[in-house]
Amino acid sequence: MDKNKLLILFKLSGKFFKRYLKEYFLLLLKPLLIGIIGILSVLLAFIDPIFGIVSLFISIPCICYSFWRGYLITYSLNLASYNFIKKNAVLSLENCYKAVLQDEKRFAMYVLFYALATIIGYIPTIIFTVISVGNTDLATIINNPFDIINTMLPVFIVSVINSLVLLPFLNFSLQAYTFKKDENFIQLFLNCYKKLDLTGFIIAFIVSGFSFVISAVNIVLYFLTFIFINLIVYSVNTFWYSSRIQTKEM
């Protein structure tokens, strides 16, 4: 692993963070506010059951809009990162977002592929969990709660191994799509592994592990800091991925 390269990539990510923090926050503000309205509208159901139907018509569209627009804006960080490091051109994030919108339908299909591939990829963990739980004597656990550790430890180990295998795809899937040429979705999946080197794996391990730890410690803290996390994660991933390929001008 090239430690100097790793350090340079994270330093560049820090500069990118300073450049785009304000703009990223302002672009996300509208989707975030609409999402909050959607969540708050659920409270109508507690006032009167009849308002529950009204709240559904408000909350579902608002939350879906908030999630998808926020996701597209966040994905546009890839384009901004590439131009930041490769073209010596600091494009506005809004322009990058407009470019993403032109490919929105195909990108939505790729996101669906990503979700299905992730579910399929975790089938070993799902199967092992079902088998382990099915072979567990509930009465024994009730009498001795510490037996749950013996039951769940193998499940945890299998889950960790499964996650490490999927880590390159989970971490670099959006970069693979950003730098696509004529590949289909399966080929983009494979690109996450073909381009991988030790530095890339370390980056994936660091950023994924950091996000996991924060969300595990306090999910509220994660949501409060996700803007800062995204700016670092998306930029350093793009910086590394772009260094592993030769791509024509985008």
Topology readout:
Elements: H1 3-41, H2 44-47, H3 50-86, H4 93-101, H5 104-121, H6 123-134, H7 138-143, H8 147-178, H9 185-194, H10 198-217, H11 219-243
Structure description:
This protein is mainly alpha-helical and 250 residues long. The protein is 85% helix and 0% strand. It contains eleven helices and no strands. Helix 1 (3-41) packs across helix 11 (219-243). The chain is globular and about 65 Å long. The two termini are 29 Å apart. The mean pLDDT is 87.
* Helical segment count: 11
Helix content: over 70%
Report the C-alpha radius of gyration, rounded.
Answer: 21 Å
What structural category characterises the helix and strand content? mainly alpha
The biggest beta sheet is recorded as: none
> Would you report the number of β strands?
0
Quote the distance from N terminus to C terminus.
29 Å
> Proportion of β residues?
under 5%
Q: Which regions are unreliable across 5 or more consecutive residues at pLDDT < 50? A: none
Mean pLDDT across the residues is 87
- Which descriptor suits the 3D outline? globular
What's the order of the H and E elements? Answer: HHHHHHHHHHH
Tell me briefly what this model is.
The protein is an all-alpha fold. It is built from eleven helices and no strands.
Question: Which features would summarize this protein structure in a list?
Answer:
single chain, 250 residues, mainly alpha
